[in-house]
Structures are given as C-alpha cells and as structure tokens.
Write a structure and sequence with these properties.
2 domains; 5-stranded mixed β-sheet; 4-stranded antiparallel β-sheet; 13% helix
Length: 215
C-alpha cells in the first residue's frame, strides 16, 4: 500500500471514529432532546370551542410524557416573567378584555427543571354588541319603609361585573361579579333615594343604570 493510500485510510478512520460522533451529538443538544417529552403537550380553551361570549373560560392541559410539576400561563407571548404554579389538568381563566381573537399561552416545567417551548390555543371573544341589562330596586316599588332594599340585576351573557353606589360617583367603589340579587342600604333620612349601578362587559364597556325609591 502506498503512503498516499495509507494517509487517506488513516484520515477516514479518524473522521468516522472521532469527528462523526461529535458532529452527530452537536446536531441535537440536550435542551432540544428534552423537548421530546413535551411533544404531545398542549392547551385547549373551552374544550376546543372556536367562539365564546364571556372572558371566563376553562383551560385544559395535556402535559405529554414529561413528569411535569409546574406550568405558567399568560394572555401574551411574553411569558418569561410569569410566575410558575403547580400543574393542573384544568384551570379557570380570564381572557383579556375586547372583542376578537384571544390567545392563551402556556409553558410546562418538569421535575428535572426542563422547560417546554410555548404552547398556545386561540378562541374568538364574540361580545354582544348591545347587551341586555335590567336593574330594579325592590322589584320597581315606588316607596319603602325600610332603608335596606333589594337590588336585582338581569343581564345578558358577557356582562361580568358591577359597581353599586348611592351616588353617581363610583370612585373607590370595588367591582363585583354580577349578582342577580343583593341587599343594599340606602342613605339615612326620609325622601327620594337613588341607587346607581354600573356594569362592565367583556369588551370593557360600561353601562349605568339607576332607579329611585322614596323612603
């Protein structure tokens, strides 16, 4: 065998036994290999529905084959600063305000500390353009002998929150989930009293209803 042939043979052996394994390993680094256990993971909004009238939805999670201990969820792809929470297969969640497509993002973290890529699902928030809202005080009575009255609300789907006040100024009044009926105290003294209720829908719009009653 000539020297040139020997050199070529040695070079070929060196490439196969040394360089090729290194190159093969470099193609799939560990952090990418770890994603295999998350391959079948996913998040689903409202069981796969395409539309919803309310911001309140139910998220369902599939974690893949990884031993997942925690997850983090966001309404924005900027999920890196979101706090981790224990893994659960279902979770109630609120979409952002406003009509249109809403996307929920999730990442999973395994017991080994591996973090998945970001998974997402989308749904259309189809808010009623003109929601129905009806408010009454003591079922619409004109007068009462009791300062404690019953405020009743009937609203269409998508109207989520309410504020109640004895004046048209709602400053510092907390938002509450809409309640069909609640007890409310009128101001002291006799005469005409007016109850104001401000409602907020899934688009972030507000609507004020009021009714007066004589004490």
């Amino acid at each position: 065998m000539q020297k040139n042939q020997v050199f070529q043979l040695v070079l070929a052996i060196f490439f196969v036994t040394v360089l090729f394994p290194v190159a093969s390993f470099a193609v799939v680094p560990f952090d990418l290999q770890s994603q295999g256990v998350f391959r079948s993971a996913r998040v689903t909004i409202n069981g796969g529905d395409t539309r919803t009238r309310t911001r309140s939805v139910v998220l369902s999670f599939t974690k893949g084959t990884a031993d997942v201990e925690s997850m983090r969820i966001a309404n924005s792809p900027e999920i890196g600063n979101v706090s981790w929470q224990p893994y659960s297969s279902r979770k109630e969640w609120f979409l952002d305000f406003g009509r249109g497509e809403k996307v929920v993002y999730v990442q999973f973290r395994s017991t080994n500390g591996d973090i998945s890529t970001t998974f997402s699902d989308a749904i259309i928030l189809d808010v009623d353009p003109q929601p129905f809202i009806e408010m009454t005080v003591n079922d619409g009575d004109d007068s009462t002998f009791d300062r404690t009255v019953t405020v009743s609300s009937t609203v269409s789907e998508g109207v989520e929150h309410m504020q109640i006040s004895n004046s048209s100024d709602f400053s510092d009044v907390p938002w509450l989930p809409v309640q069909e009926s609640l007890r409310w105290s009128l101001p002291t003294g006799e005469g005409k009293k007016t109850v104001y209720v401000r409602y907020r829908d899934a688009q972030g719009r507000t609507f004020i209803k009021k009714q007066s009653i004589i004490v």
